[in-house]
Amino acid sequence: MPLRISDLLDRPGLRLALTYDVPPELLARTIEAATVSDLLTPGKWLQGGELLMTIGLLLPMEPAACRAYVRDAAEGGAACLALGLGQGLPYQEAPEVLVTAAREAGLPLLTVPDEVPFIAVTKAVFDARAAEQREVLHRAFATQRRLTAAAATSDGLQPMLAEWTAATGVGATVLDPLGRQLAAAEREPRTPLDRARDLIERVAARGLRGSATSTAGGTQLEVQPLGARRLRGLLLLAGRPDDAARAVVPGLISLLSLELERRHLRDEPERRRRSALLSELLADEDLTGDRARDMLASAGLSAERVRAVVVEAAPATGPRGPGGAPSPAALSEGAAQEMAADLALAMPGGLVRVTGEPGPARGPLIEAVAGEELDIHAVLGRFAPHCPAGIGPATAPEAVRVSLRQATGLLAVSRTSGAPAEARQSEAARLLLELGDRRTLLGYADTVLGPLDLADNGEELIATLAAWLETGGAWDATSRRLGVHRHTVRNRLDKAMDLTGRRLDDPDDRFDLWLATRIRRGGRAAPGGR
Q: Which pLDDT score is estimated for 316?
């Protein structure tokens, strides 16, 4: 329990007394420390919450000066003022001018009798603070033991979260790296996940490198990453942990991370089964539509159209060895398997496999099949950043081999551009842009996007507009690709339309904007001229 002014007054050995009728809320102030000072301006030497004791050696008796002294102590953070009385000291009772100044300033004023030395008061304060800290440690150890027992005797995340909430009163939810709920301390989380979505995505994007806190609906939210060497999940805390609970948070993170790592290892046979299923799907040259759909359905993938994805596991900007070749660590089969496991978790169905031997300057290839509706760019940006990747066109399940072939062929393009390369069913627009005169095309783009170039955040507006157009006007997909909230996307596009005088719901305006952004993108990547 924190030490309050009322607790000191209740200690018979100290015989402290109030000098005026102090309101109860002031007597409930917490005392953090005790100090002695006879300075006229002690405020700058205080840190806040102190019991400031003085014998009043230099105490001014002029009312204005006395009020200034008390105000300085109060503004410095003193919780209480105590005046020592006794024979041989300046005062045998509290002077009325000091009592009046303390009452006006709302600063409790106590008196310390002659037979009680200041050191006795100081010891009482610090003994109480030490007892408070021992109580905090005792509660922290007790909570840690309960969590450890839950981790040792139960299987799963929920028992640990339930013990945590029962001991601390703070809600807890474990999410996967994509922000999907895995377990919660209570049947219904105290804070809906959509309120914490921005915070969750911000921490997930940073991996194991940091945490974040915010407030939503008056509730403090905190997100912590979980995992050993790779991000396995996220812990969302809803509430304000006290000192004892705060001391246990690292232990809770460790136990939850251990459970997620164990779960990852337990899932290895299932990942192998799905990898073998994918190999069977891709090896069957006479695959029928019904057979393909049945195989995908057995893995939980029921999309009518699917696309293949190929990722080169070694980052193009990864660590380099002698002569500029990628280091062995960048090409390790284990790293590719870890990345494949992450992708399998993110893609419904989890049809992912590692294939191919690393070449002299390239890493293993990861092949996957995903539903057409999946935002594959967001998944690659989260789990395979900076890795060359090819994305095949959406096809019927029985034609997924064709999509895989096109995705593999796009790896060279991705290595050059530094971004995932996606095959399109129709390339007429690209052909038109390649045939047109580059100077004329860039002039057209400047005419359409010129007002945005002059804006303070013009590049940001153009990038948001291009992403929105490329996703077919999908607000959620655009916000995920850019890593911002969908409201931010709307605000940026509204500003862009105001500046250009265009309308997104007008087909001609939309085509002009799309063509201009594509020209700009080509202008940055392609050489000048035709």
A: 43
SS (H, E, C) 209-242: HCCEEEEECCEEEEEEEECCCCCCEEEEEECCCC
Read off the DSSP letter of residue 321: -
Q: What is the pLDDT of residue 451?
A: 86
| Residue 101 pLDDT | 95
What is the distance between the alpha carbons of residues 310 and 409, in angstroms, rounded to a whole number? 9
Amino acid at 361: A
Q: List the structure tokens of 394.
A: 């959406």
* Contact assessment for residue 91 and residue 99, using Cβ atoms and an 8 Å cutoff: no
User: CA nearest 259: which of 233, 236, 237?
Assistant: 233
Structurally, what CATH architecture does the domain formed by 287-425 represent? 2-Layer Sandwich (3.30)
Q: Determine the Cα–Cα distance for residues 161 and 168; give it in Å rounded to an integer.
A: 11
User: Nearest-5° angle of CA 172, CA 175, CA 176?
Assistant: 160
> What's the CA gap between 221 and 205, in Å, rounded?
17
Query: What CATH number belongs to 153-266?
Result: 3.30.450.40
CATH number assigned to the domain with residue range 5-116, chosen from the 4 options 3.30.300.130, 3.40.190.10, 3.50.50.60, 3.40.1390.20? 3.40.1390.20
Q: Do the beta carbons of residue 490 and residue 474 sit within 8 Å?
A: no
Alpha helices by DSSP H, 228-310: 243-266, 268-283, 289-298
3-state SS, residue 352: strand
Write the Ramachandran bin of 300: left for phi over 0, alpha for psi from -120 to 50, otherwise beta. Answer: left
Query: What token pair was written down for 400?
Result: 């997924």
Distance (Å, rounded) from C-alpha 525 to C-alpha 503? Answer: 28
Instruction: Note the Cα 298 to chain centre separation in Å.
Output: 35
- In three-state form (DSSP H/G/I as H, E/B as E, the rest C), the secondary structure along 398-462 is HHHHHHHHHHHHCHHHHHHHCCCEECCCCCHHHHHHHHCCHHHHHHHHHHHHHHHHCCCCHHHHH
User: Which token pair is 177?
Assistant: 């790296």
Domain spans in the chain, listed from the N-terminal domain onward: 5-116, 153-266, 287-425, 429-525
22 contact partners, CB below 8 Å, separation of at least 6: 5, 108
Q: Which of 69, 87, 256 is nearest to 156 (CA)?
A: 256
**Which residues lie closer than 8 Å to 269 by C-beta, 6 or more apart?**
none
**Predicted local confidence at residue 328, as pLDDT:** 42
Q: Which residue has the tokens 């601390």?
A: 168
Q: How far is CA 289 from the centre of its chain?
A: 43
Q: Which of 513, 463, 456 is nearest to 484 (CA)?
A: 463
Which one-letter amino acid corresponds to residue 138? Answer: H
Burial of 219 (0-12, 13-18, 19+ CB in 10 A): middle
Query: Which residues in the chain come in under a pLDDT of 70?
Result: 190, 314-333, 356-362, 424-437, 522-530
Q: The domain 429-525 belongs to what CATH superfamily? A: PucR C-terminal helix-turn-helix domain (1.10.10.2840)
